Each structure stands twice: as structure tokens, then as C-alpha cells.
């Protein structure tokens, strides 16, 4: 199915409408009116979520780095400064000069939609029978795929690999602050009088705890479990503002009758 007549191009739906391929419209590089309209709408939507207490002055998105997924933050006051953001995603080969402004506007809008869904639940427009779990922005082969529920991960890939149905599970690299902002509500369990380090993150009906202590050579590894109590006597803490790996391997006790 093809949807045409859209402001910035057309959309082709494939894989039983689960994949949306968005083609950019040909327009003059000096015609910024459509892009300004999209960014105005984005700013308006951000203001609504902010008024509802869903965000402060920024939002996050997931960047797929191949071996892991990394949570990145976008400051709404820095919309023009996109070059450092894409550089942080490990995409230095994709210069900002090669990214048309309409593609950047689409990326911002889709990233904010993903962030909003993390707070409000799935957003299903009335005009879509099936909300796509995979979206391709063909202008520069930008790809995003569904990641553990209502959030998307973003990565530059060729179209053929991006349509592969294999979706490996990846570890998440994020700061506890950004993680709580994206998937909260939740709380930090912290030592008294220490604003920089925490024992655990209480979120999603369980706790995110360290499985190893951080060293100068390696980051702390964290894992989420359904634990409801915490023994702080070990004194093991981890920083709340530094990015850490969440998703460490754990061994299963096969003799335990409790549900995982």
C-alpha cells in the first residue's frame, strides 16, 4: 500500500503493513516552509508533554551501535546543533551536509514520538490499521526498529540488511538518570548524603543492580531482576550520571521452583 500526497513525500507499507518506508519529497533546498511547519508541530507537541509533566527540557532516543543499544539525549534548546549528536552516534561518515533538513525534521519527530510512547504507552493514529514496528527513512537509508516495546532504535544501514527479520537482543548503555527519565516512574536507592552514587534503580516492578564492581579498566555491569528488597550492607554502588551497561549475563538456578 502506498500513501501519497503527504507534505514531505510518500509512505510505502510492506510486510503486512508492519514496515513503513518513507520517501522524501523533491523540493527546492531553499523551500524551508514545510520543514518549519514540522518543527513547529514538534515544538508544540513537546510543550504539551512538558505541561503534563512528561518531560523537562529534553528527550531521549535509542541509538543502535550493533553490539549494544545506547540511550542518547536531545536538548530541545539545541535543535540547530545536530552535528555533535550524530557524531556521538558513531556515524561520523555521515556528514551533516549529506543529511537534508527534511530528513532531520522527520528524525526529530520520530524520535520524540518514540520517547512519548515510553511515557504514555503506544500511540496509534486512527488512520493506521496496523502501527508499523519498523520505519525506514529512505532519503539517507536511516533505519529504526522496535526495541523491547514502544521505543525505537536508530541506525544508518543499507536497506537490504535493515529489512532482515532477525532482531538480536542487545545490551543497553545508558546513564541511570536518562534510563529513569525514559522508562520511569522509578526511584534511586542511594546512600545517605551521596548525590552521585546509588545502590540500585527501582523501576518496572524490580531493581536494577550491579553484578560487578566498576574498575578503572571496565564499566560496572547492571542487571534488572524482580527483586523487591535490597541488602545495602555490601556497600556496592555505581554512579547515577555515568553511562553503564545494563543487561549483564546471569546464570539460572534450574532447581528453583519460583517463576523467573
Name the features:
260 residues, alpha+beta, 2 domains, 14-stranded mixed sheet, two-stranded antiparallel sheet, 5 helices, 16 strands, 22% helix, disordered C terminus
Summarize this entry quickly.
With 260 residues, the protein is α+β, with helices and mostly antiparallel strands. 22% of the residues lie in helices and 30% in strands.
What can you tell me about this protein's structure?
This protein is α+β, with helices and mostly antiparallel strands. It has two domains: 2-162, no CATH class; 175-246, no CATH class. The chain has five helices and 16 strands. The strands form two sheets. Strands 1-2-3-6-7-8-4-5-9-16-14-13-12-10 form a 14-stranded mixed β-sheet. The chain has a two-stranded antiparallel ribbon with strand order 11-15. Helix 1 (33-51) runs parallel beside helix 3 (101-120).
Q: Could you tell me the strand content as a percent range?
A: 25-35%
Task: Please give the order of strands in the largest beta sheet.
Answer: 1-2-3-6-7-8-4-5-9-16-14-13-12-10
End-to-end CA span: 42 Å
Number of helices, where a helix is a run of at least 4 consecutive DSSP H or I residues: 5
Specify the biggest β-sheet.
Answer: 14 strands, mixed
Please indicate the count of domains.
2
The helix content is 10-25%
Radius of gyration: 20 Å
Number of strands: 16
Class of secondary structure makeup:
alpha+beta
What is the oligomer described by this structure?
A: single chain
Low-confidence stretches: 80-97, 139-153, 156-164, 256-260
What's the mean pLDDT score? 70
- The succession of helices and strands, N to C, reads EEEHEEHHEEEHEHEEEEEEE
Shape: elongated
